[in-house]
Amino acid sequence: MLSKVQITALLFLGVGLLVVPPVTSWLDAPFYVSLFARIMIFAIAVVSLDLILGYGGMVSFGHAAYLGIGAYAVAIPSYYGIDNGYLQLALALGGSALVAFVIGLVSLRTSGLYFIMITLAFTQMLFFLGISLEEYGGDDGINTNRSELLGLDLYDETTFYYLIFGFLVFCLAVSYRLVHSRFGRVIRGIHANEARMQAIGYPTFRYKLAAFVIAGAMCGIAGFLLGNLTEFITPEYMSWFRSGEIMIMVLMGGMGTIFGSVFGALAYISLEEFIPDFLDWFGDGLGQHWPIVLGPLLVVLVLFAKGGLWGLLSRRDK
Amino acid sequence: MDLSLLLFEQTLNGIQFGVFLFLIAAGLTLVFGIMNLVNLAHGALYMMGAYVGATVFGWSGSFLLAAVAVVPAMMIFGALVERVALRTLYERDHMDQVLATFGLILFFNELVRIVWGPESQPMPIPEALSGHIEILSGVPYPTFRIVIIGVGLAVAAALYVLISRTRLGMLIRAGASNRPMVGALGVNIRLLFTLVFGLGAVLAGLSGVMAGPLLAVEPGMGEDMLVLSFVVIVIGGIGSIRGALVASILVGIVETVGRSILPVMLEAVVSNEAAQTAGPALASMLIYVVMAAVLFFRPEGLFSARTG
């Protein structure tokens, strides 16, 4: 159950996100609209990973693959002049679900270290596939148009922002329902003790695979939105660095906390955005070396921040 | 060129690339197997080795000195990293280890960028080894690559002796199959861990020095090798040196031969244009397909340390 503090925090966050476009246009700082759009898009990716990582205990180190597939589902049709958002979204969902199915089929046969490395390796494979697709930009990436969806003008940043907001709310609601459904309980049961779930008759492999596919498809939505936001897609979206970042956001938000994902994405992307400025403040040119601060910061976070930001918001008597 | 000659030469190149992978994967698989630690920062050790080598080479002009200097330097560096950063991670779950060592990668890559700059470091092939040797009549092959293969096989043999014939090796094997029991028998596990990690660092560093003249010495050079080493370890079986050797040669050959032969072969079957598009794509995916196939039949890898 959500604590009062958590509900308050969520309300603040929701209202905060809703008023970003008017406030930034009043402050004449349109940059922040796309920053918060990016945060919300990553929040979708994070919540999808949290479903299998936090609730299912499946440490997938290749979640960026679906981000890339979703983005390419925008770029490749757009390359052929097809900007139909419904088709692109269907491709993003179907493509990532299919790939998640195949990856899951092989990798879920293993566990622990093997699972981490296999999911990483498969994503790496897709990354190299993206690089070798010269037709679609290869290494250099490819420009794309924004999709035509629901008769909206996605080139209008505010409209697009609220569309992303809608998708985020939708994904959070679906995840919340899913986790508290019978299916979600089975997934959590498998995380706690797979042998026991098997013994009471659950086909655990199929349940895990289903969760893996759902998570992949949901992340495909994030990829679809990200492709639209940046209007430029490179294989870099599928790099293992990206997968690591999504994992870090899950951890920062709190594992196995649906709503924590939004806070995790908010915290990580803000850090990434502001550490360079902060360093530049100490001396010119220091900002470019931001990973030297972020790296150790991550180590410290991992070591000391159990439960993530969402955990901080929950009452201690839990 | 004649296809069979190309195949022969590329196989040799593949073995040579496999040697690089083996030197990285050997340390990594021990760290995985014994300490149960996912160390993403292992690629950074390879990178540090290359940078130390390039720097010593820059000062002295002697490749041999560079290779020798890397051994103590990496031993100290590895032990330091283990003591300062990794020690606290042994008791954590894999997820925490992945993220913390991910943070270390960011740190080391940026450290290298600050100290040495973002551009790649010059490291030419040493003059004495810059020639070619005719391995078959009419087939010249670079001496340097032959030396790499020789060194790699020598290190593999030395590791084999160390692991299977010495007391330290016995402890390492015991640690890989049952860590708490080794600790219970009164072995100083902490010291053993530091030693093993240092050994892994030295091997990865050696790989970096030898790769320096052939691949670029630059920040982030360790990451591609790291992912390939993961593939090697998954195929070979976690904790198994023997598995690492077999799998790294396999991955090296598949990767290198696939890249050069596959487009040529495709060209013979389908149209030129299609081959040029599909060839590189298929080649870069090939090792992952091999990995998936191995895992499908043997989820524990070819030689698992725990199952024998």
Describe it for me?
The complex is a heterodimer of chains A (318) and B (308). Chain A has 318 residues and is mostly helical. Chain A contains 14 helices and two strands; from the N terminus they run ααααααβααααβαααα. Chain A has a single domain, classed as ABC transporter involved in vitamin B12 uptake, BtuC (Orthogonal Bundle), CATH 1.10.3470. Chain A has a two-stranded antiparallel ribbon. Chain A starts with a helix and ends in a 5-residue tail after the last helix. Chain B is 76% helix and 3% strand. In chain B, a hairpin with a 2-residue loop joins strand 1 and strand 2. The chains are: A mainly alpha (318), B mainly alpha (308). Chains A and B meet through helix 6, helix 11 and helix 13 of A and helix 4, helix 9 and helix 11 of B.
Q: Helices and strands of chain A: which structural class? A: mainly alpha
The largest pleated sheet of chain A is described as: 2 strands, antiparallel
- The strand order across the widest sheet of chain B is 1-2
Whole-number total of structural domains of chain B: 1
* Helix residue percentage of chain A: over 70%
Largest interface: A-B, 43 and 44 residues
Strand order of the largest sheet of chain A: 1-2
Helix segment tally of chain A: 14
Strand content of chain B: under 5%
Radius of gyration of chain B: 20 Å
Strand tally of chain B, please?
Answer: 2
CATH class of chain B: Mainly Alpha
Which H/E pattern describes the elements of chain A?
A: HHHHHHEHHHHEHHHH
Distance between the termini of chain A: 10 Å
Gross CATH architecture of chain A: Orthogonal Bundle
